[in-house]
Amino acid sequence: MARLTVTVIGDDRDHLVATLSGIATSHGANWEESRISELAGKCAGVIVLSAADAKVAELTSALESVGGQLEVAVQPAPDVPHAPRQRLAIHVLGNDQPGIVHEVSNVLARAGLSISTMRTECLDAPMAGGQLFEANIVGSVSASFDSAPVRRDLERLASEIQVDIDLAEAE
Length: 171
Hints:
The chain is an alpha+beta fold and about 170 residues long. About 25% of the residues lie in helices and about 45% in strands. The chain has two domains: about 1-75, 2-Layer Sandwich (Alpha-Beta Plaits), CATH 3.30.70; about 85-170, Alpha-Beta Plaits. Strand 2 (about 30-40) and strand 3 form a beta hairpin. The relative contact order is 0.17. The model has no long low-confidence stretch (mean pLDDT about 90).
């Protein structure tokens, strides 16, 4: 059994997931995991499929034939060891300014936190006018990770760039 990573990006249109899942199903593939989002009129996603070795070439060709609707790339999925990991949630909220993502992600990288998901957006600040920046990040760290040092670094950063940053165990 082969595992494949399928990446897709293209203009958001109705029925894209139905099209992709139909191709997978018609080739006997199992849809194991996916992250698909729409943003700024584009649909982007990563999908993990498993399929019989004998079906991989045919499945890959069929997925790549979606061409006119999406850019599709199919690659073998790497074997990733599943060591026990701890999940952390980071929430950032403050006045929008350049560099927030860079500053926060640098602190997290130095701490050894791997970002699993990140969602950011700018919102209207209802009382003060202007824009608020909000980020919701979920990351993973080793099971023995000590969050105290990264918590201190995030508190220092929050003070420097004048945003609120909360760190908690993710559910």
